[in-house]
Amino acid sequence: MTSYKSQRLAAPAIGRRAFLTSSAATAGLGAATLAGINAGHAQQSGTIKIGQMVSLTGPLAVDGVEHKNGLDMAIEEINEAGGILGMTVESVVLDSANQTAEEVSSAANLLIDREGVSAIVNGYNVGANQAEYDAIADAGIIYIHYNTSVGHHEVFESDPERYFGIFMADPAEVYYGYGLPVMLDRIRSQGIWKPENNRIALITGSLPYSIVISNAIRDNAAKYGFEVSFEEVVPVPTTEWGAVLKKVRDDAPAVIANTHFYPGDLAQCQVQFAQNPTNSLVYYQYGPLLKAFSELAGEAARGVLTSSVIGILPDELGNAFREKYYAKFGDTAEADPGASTYSEMYHYAIAAALAGGVGEPGNHEQNRKIADNLRRFVYRAPFGTLRYDPRFNAAIPYPTLSEDPSLAMPHLLYQITDPAAANPKKLIYPAPYNEAEFTLPPWFK
């Protein structure tokens, strides 16, 4: 199998202003592009069903509802632009609740067998572990998701012909782990943070997603002068962090990295840490991206680090999407997860239109044409470049794997700067996307 730490591709240097201006100006693939394709082709009639299986209930509904909103918003705009070659698009959304393999597989089968969907445009289902892949491969339809799983790479590489239509629209979770020591080294090199030691304490959620990230942090830490000095796995979900935090305080590490990702659970961890903090940077996986984390943690959230590979960029395209999303769904909505399914749907619609139309279950030939287009045409999304590496049928990260920001999805490091603000976080890495610089957390003595 292909190494997930392949040699990176270098890119020429380019200034932030020049890159962001040019990338926004050439975004191109959107409603206007689709309308142009529709105008140039013979029109068809009928309805296209697009399936989705996301958590509308349960602890991950905070994202699942937004994944539905993003899909519905894109479909509304696509229909206004003439649909897909004149065919009207409609969504069929099923609740994957706790995202178990059984729930996700059942939903996939219902979407295919009962609803006859032409594609499944999804958010994430972190507990399914690719259990839904075989039913989708048998049907031969397109399935685009954000499961963030290295397991996707492994299954796809095992039989690319069988799994031709299954795409992961963000980099695998393993790159979060490989990328964190790189980011910490960058912060240290700026001289603002002068760590008292080189120790990283790892707190790991019990889900495979979290475990893979922690393992990758451990594997890559020494390369950047860090040492994993403490590790403990905590059950998911969990709200009582006292016992593990006591052990961490006794270790007094330079960095605390918690790879559990439920925002409410992580907010409780930060509140309890802030009651007796150590001079440690605190990194939480994904959860603080959502406003629920800052609302629950309050002032204790200030200074926390977090990261994502599907965060909306603070550029012309990203800001315009955020404004449009809030206007439609209200200021309390979470635009970042909504942008993922919104962008997936547009990429699929354009790829299908260029292929001459969608393919229903069993129409492998037409769906292969669409899959080829998804790999062939890059889509500039509000969160950066959506491009599928043909080795994996998945996006790859910049700068962890590719040094070219026009060909990979940026791995974004944020810091919570104002917990009470409408957007509590600022992007501090990588260039040319960053909008602010790292500041030392207020709990440092």
UniProtKB/TrEMBL annotation:
Specify the signal sequence span.
Answer: 1-27
Its domain of life? Bacteria
Record CDD domains: PBP1_ABC_transporter_LIVBP-like
- Keywords noted in UniProt: Amino-acid transport, Signal, Transport
Domain Leucine-binding protein intervals:
47-391
Record-linked InterPro entries: BCAA_transport, Leu-bd, Leu_Ile_Val-bd, Peripla_BP_I, TAT_signal
Instruction: State if Transport is listed as a keyword.
Output: yes
Q: Which family does it belong to?
A: Belongs to the leucine-binding protein family.
Q: What is this protein called?
A: ABC transporter substrate-binding protein
In its UniProt entry, the species of origin is given as Aquibium pacificus
